[in-house]
Amino acid sequence: MSSTDRGSCTTRFIKEECDYMWEIENFQVLWKLTDAVMMSPMFTVSGSNQLQFQFKFLKIYDKQHPHGVLKLYLSCVNSNSVICNYRISVIRNGQISKATSNFYTFHNRREDLEIFSYLSKKMNRLITCNNNTVNIRCKLTVFVADTSNLLNCKSVNNDKVPNLKFDWVFLDENLSDVKLRTACGKEIPAHRLVLATASPVFRAMFSHSMPGNRTSSVDMMDVSYETAVEMLRHIYTGSVKKCKISTIIELLAAADTYQFEELKNKCEKILITNLSTDNVLEILEIANNHGAKILKKGIADFRKLRHAIDDLMLEDMILSDPVNGLVVDIEQKSTFFSQVLRYLCTSLHQINVGDHTRLKVSRTT
């Protein structure tokens, strides 16, 4: 026996984000009363005190700018080697008047990154006209130095036998070594190995046959021809053909008798989708006779829903089925209840539980 280890690995930087707005009211007045620096409160990324940032406006006077220039800086206050992606914009009169974005690495604490610069005489381009405020918005994504490693490995058995398909010999005399004799006397060709693989009952039956004295037929006098064909269809192809409810009931009984658990489960689910006020008691008896746990759970849900709907005032309402656009007239109450309960029970037992269906009840005028 041999095996091969196969896997994949993903390494990613953990990222944290924030969206911060710095609003400065009465900006011109504060600017005149303030020294060379105006600083924002410190803000954090994802609530982590280990990553604190701060804005500051700086007044600079030199030979090139004798009237002064305003510069906006961003600094990382308390961490080294921080990689970030920023988008910083000036919001003026409800619109973005200036914006910039880029990647940057803060190598040292309190390191300043210049964002914008304005000449003092053009400071009005920053200010919102009606309330004399300056609004700086910062969207910041920080890539933390720590990394996340994801490893997905599995061992593949190279000697695993592939699933075999037997649909090509379904109801075929070719290679057949046994016949199933049904209630009406008609016989169906089958294959011992296939039946024994699918059913513990058939396996025990064929295993205890004496060599050289193997019977060429098996009596299934309690199973109709149609039901036996559908039972074999599932054994050979894995599918269940759409049948009458009476046939599904017989198929459930045969699956229970010969211990075809997968087929039995499928029959129970089909019966749940076909529950009605007219047949629920009959099907409950069938579920009890054959130990059908899935079916009994479905019937319990059905009865709870039935009692809930009985409490509604339904005389002047219609049911709109959002999936099929089906509209049921309330005057036909028996049909109406059956449709509602069948619909709800079907949705409760959908295989894909991520799909959600809404039941809409609207009042007519």
UniProtKB/TrEMBL annotation:
Indicate what this protein is called per its UniProt record.
Answer: BTB domain-containing protein
List the SUPFAM superfamilies hit by this protein, alphabetically. Answer: POZ domain, TRAF domain-like
Q: Extract the coiled-coil ranges from the record.
A: none
Q: Where does the record place the BTB domain?
A: 176-244
SMART domains reported for this sequence: BTB (SM00225)
